[in-house]
Every structure is written in structure tokens, then in C-alpha cells.
Design goal:
mainly alpha, Tetracycline Repressor, domain 2, 9 helices, about 65% helix
Length: about 220
Amino acid sequence: MVQKTGKPPASSPDAPAPRRRGRPRAYQPEVALGKALDLFRKDGFAATSLDGLSAATGMNRPSLYGAFGDKRELYIKSYERYRADARAAMIDIFRDELPIRKRLQRIYAVALDIYLSGEAGPRGCFTVMTAASEAVADPDIRAMVLEGFSELDKAFAACFRLARENGELPETADPMVLAQLASATIHTIAIRARARVPRKELEAIVKGAIDVMVGAQSSA
């Protein structure tokens, strides 16, 4: 006859560990924000659902709200992240004192790398493809879009101003007008990239635009 000791049986070494309660496993906010950015950039604000964001980031809704706020706040944070990444990719080229043609060529090459990237196809530009639409009804997003346009115009204007001082452009050249043309070229290649226009065609547009801005005679 076996005596009952009242002690629980020893756990088997092969038995699964008891589930712990509490917060879900730790996540990396910057990684999660990058996933949200990719989804917003691909589908826009309205078509991106909270369920989609949850699946993309690996975070449930309460965790998303706790980390980033509501969907609009997450969208704005994603747009801020996009602008910071784009600025970081371009800043050295804008600062380097290269000949104006070479500088523009490098700026547009980097822009095309950004716009043509994406696992599911070219993603274009967040500002042009989605933020500009949201700017119609949302004053905060509109302010961010306008600030981005102004920042890009000023960066290009500084390049053209230096080129004029160095004798690469005539004294009559207007740096701000040229800057707006340069920015417009950025926007058009972003739209065409999203429409899957081949890179060679986009590069031809860029070359033609640079010829107009700085003169075909300076192509040597």
C-alpha cells in the first residue's frame, strides 16, 4: 500500500514551463515605428487599419496606443521618421561643395534609390503619395508638408546660390526659382517611381531637368 504524503508530485523536466502573466515581450520602438512607416507609406492613412498596424508591428492595440497614441499620432510619428531618414540620406550631399551638375546628379540618384525601394514594389515619396492628401483636412500634417517643401527649396537654393557665386551660373540666375524647379523634379520622379516607371526613364527626366536648370553646355 502506497502512502499519500500530501506533497505535489515533482515536475517533470520535460514539462512546459508555466506561463507568466504580465506585459508582453519587450519590443523595439524604432523597429515598430519603421514597420508602421512602411505600411502607411504603402497604403496611405485611410486604408491602413489598426489590425494591419498591429500585425505589422507585432504589437496588440493597447500596446500600440500606449507606445504611440492613436492611429493619427502614429501616422504623424511615422512621417516625422520618414523625414528624418530622408534628411539624413541627403544632408551630406547638400553640404558638399561639389560642382552644381554633379551635386544635382547625386541628389537625384539618392532620391531614386529611396523612391524605388520596397519589397512589394516602388514606394515613392511619403510626402507626395500620402501626406499631401492628408494635409487637405489636417492642419498639423499640412504644416509638416509645407515645412518639408520649404526646407527642400531652401536646401536647393543654397546649392544654386553657391554655384552662381562660383561662376557656374549666370548672374541673372534666380536661386529660388531654380530651387523650386529642382524640388518639382523631385516630386515628379517620386510619383512616376510609384507608378513603376523604369529607372532609366526617370534618369532621363532627371538629366533633362538638370540641363534646363544649369545649362546643357555645362555637362562636361
